[in-house]
Amino acid sequence: MALLKKTYVLLILCLTLAATIAQSQTQDLDLAREYFRKGEYQKAGALYEKLIEDKRLFAVTYPDYLKTLLALRNYKEAEKLVKRSIKQNPGNYSFEVDLGIVYQTAGDKAAAEKHFNKLIQQMSPETTIAVASAFIQNELYDYAEKAYLRGRELSKNPLENNRPLIALYTYQQKSNALIPEVLNLLQENEEELGYVQNMLQNSLRDDKALDALEKELIMRVQQFPDKLAYNELLIWLYVQRLDFYGALMQARAVDKRTRSGGSRVMELGAISAKNKDYKSAIEAFEYIISEYPEGPYYMVARQRLINAREEQVQNTFPVDKEKIRALIADYDALLTEVGRSAATVEVLQHMANLYAFYLDDKAKAIELLQEAIAMPRANANLVAESKLTLGDIYLLKGEPWEATLLYSQVEKSHKDTPIGYDAKLRNARLSYFKGDFELAQAHLDILKLATSREIANDAMDLSLLITDNTGLDTSTTAMEEYAEIELLVFQNKLQQALTSLDGMLKKYPGHSLTDEIYFQKAGIQERMGNFTEAVASLEKITSNPQYDILSDDALYKMAFIYEENLKDPTKAQQLYNDLLAKHQGSIYVAEARKRFRKLRGDAVN
Questions:
Q1: Which of 9, 24, 340, 372 could connect to 386 by a Cys-Cys bridge, CB 3.0–4.6 Å?
Q2: Cα separation of 110 and 95, whole Å?
Q3: What is the SS3 string spanning 316-359?
Q4: Which tens digits make up the pLDDT trace of 329-372?
Q5: Please, what is the end-to-end C-alpha distance for the chain in angstroms?
């Protein structure tokens, strides 16, 4: 019994002693780390030297102890520490890499290079990932690449370590190495197209890299015509560069070879139209009509072809009324061919818009829209859109109460949908035209959170216009006058609007609305075909540093007018280049870069 009691007491003492030692070691470790953090390496080293002998503490002590020895330039002791760790932990390649780092830090780059290369040469295919990972952990990416490539050589598999290399090249932004690596993967497995696109999108950031990808892809498309993934990747690349015509040419080539029904061409036609590349959109839809007259996209392509021509005419200033009449004739021919039904409500809507806003035939426009709204079994969204267009025409006629009644109907019937938000935006715009800025802001505050980015952006722009030009001024007179002028512009009373804008410049010299007035003037002058005058108005903005908010808009519009209307490519190229240099965050950068490259003479497919 006495012996048992003594054993128990001894056990308690041993446990207490062990706990005390452990607590002491923990305190020493914390203190060593604190010394290390403060740069007191001598004190840290003295503590780490003791702590490293405890095997239980090795893993948490080793990294900082090595750094401490290197900071103290005690390279011999550091080398001894690492070599001992290698001996005690065979197969742990992190210690092997640490030895090379010791040589590097000591200034013996030749020894470090020899050691790293020896490590790579002696590894087996099975140890490749471990060795490469050890290099990556120490940011020795070139040696990691060598390790992956050596592993490929040893395995005699040309795709060995393909994904790790792609990830490495993507991280390093090494596009010249990345491009063949991802294309080799795609050649092996075309289902990897999505992964390849993601990696390229994360890595290729400049024209030089994109040019290199385009060159390599074109070569591979010619070498491997059956690898459709290469064509798809080339189409994707052209879309990224906003070269919709180049994308269309590739899509047509693939479609002719596969006879896949034209779905890809239709898709590119829609993308081109959305990005205002009407030439490409028109060619896409003409292709569908020509190649697939019995296909499922034929009627849609017929309608979209006229839609694209319509947008092209509407955006070519001054608008040619004869071309407007030709568009109406095309729509009439389409209605004659397919009949007036729920499927043609959108056609009626487009015709009404042309009659009202370009031929000033509001009565005919209203008749067409009422027919669309009353059409049996018509799509509810198309009916709602027809009501919105009808509301616009009433506003065109100077009947705002009829307009707001229709807008409000759509707001109520399509609550919390893009069309409902569009209706609310039109109501906000109507309140703005009337000078009721408080009510307009109430609508706009809701719309800033709209799910549609386009509507949210439009709401934000109008909201900022109101707050920037009424918040600091106790009088809203100037803003009210400007809003009335915007209504005149909406109603196509362009000369009257231009005269009123000139009156505002004289009446309110130096007002915060001045840049908006000049920009509005330029837009009207452009629509009237007075391109030289439009440029002069825009120069009032670009030459004044106070007008920073609209300077990139003005610069882009000037470049566009010089290119498309004044036919001065040299001046246009200079202005596009100015925009790229001065406004790198502008929404016009991608389009400006594409146009600049085209004017510079870069190869465009």
A1: 372
A2: 19
A3: CCCCCHHHHHHHHHHHHHHHHHHCCCHHHHHHHHHHHHHHHHHC
A4: 999 999 999 999 999 999 999 999 999 999 999 999 999 999 99
A5: 99
Least confident of 23-32, 180-189, 284-293, 502-511: 23-32
> CB of 146 within 8 A of CB of 119?
no
Q: Are 339 and 376 in contact (CB under 8 A)?
A: no
Average pLDDT for residues 424-453, to the nearest whole number? 94
Residue 474: the pLDDT is: 55
Q: For 77-122, what is the HEC assignment?
A: HHHHHHHHHHHHCCCCHHHHHHHHHHHHHCCCHHHHHHHHHHHHHH
Dump strand ranges (E) for 152-210: none
Who contacts 604 (Cβ-Cβ below 8 Å, separation ≥6)?
Answer: 243, 245, 246, 597, 598
Which pLDDT score is estimated for 450? 79
Residues with Cβ within 8 Å of 341's Cβ and at least 6 positions away in sequence, in order, are: 375
**Phi-psi map region of 393: left, alpha, beta (phi>0 left; psi -120 to 50 alpha):** alpha
Buried b (16+ CB within 10 A) or exposed e, 294-316: ebebeebbbbbbbbbbbbbbbee
Least Cα distance to 390 among 413, 406, 411 occurs for 406
CA dihedral 400, 406, 407, 412 (to 10 degrees): 140
The rounded distance, in Å, linking the Cα atoms of 456 and 458 is 6
Residue with tokens 């002491």, as numbered in its chain: 24
DSSP state for residue 54 in the 8-state scheme: S
pTM of the model: 0.85
Structure tokens at 162: 């393909």
Phi, psi of 267 (to 5 degrees): -60, -45
CB atoms within 10 A of CB 215: 12
* Backbone φ, ψ for residue 452 (5° rounding): -80, 120
CA angle 585–589–593, rounded 5-degree value: 145
CA–CA gap between residue 501 and residue 481 (Å, rounded): 9
- Token readout for 189 is 């497995």
The first and second tokens of residue 302, run together, are 């017929």
Cα gap 505→501, rounded to integer Å: 6
CB contact at 8 A, 513 and 479: yes
CA distance 442 to 459: 11
Pair 8, 24: CB distance under 8 Å:
no
Query: Is the Cβ–Cβ distance between 430 and 403 less than 8 Å?
Result: yes
Query: Tokens 């289902």 — which residue?
Result: 191
Residues 6+ apart with CB under 8 A from 302: 285, 289, 334
Read off the amino acid at residue 383: V
Q: How many CA atoms lie within 13 A of 94 on its CB side?
A: 11
CA dihedral 556, 272, 453, 302 (to 10 degrees): 130
**Tokens matching residue 589:** 């950068």
Rounded alpha-carbon distances, angstroms, from residue 351 to 63, 302, 372, 376, 490: 75, 15, 11, 19, 18
Section 140-151 average pLDDT: 97
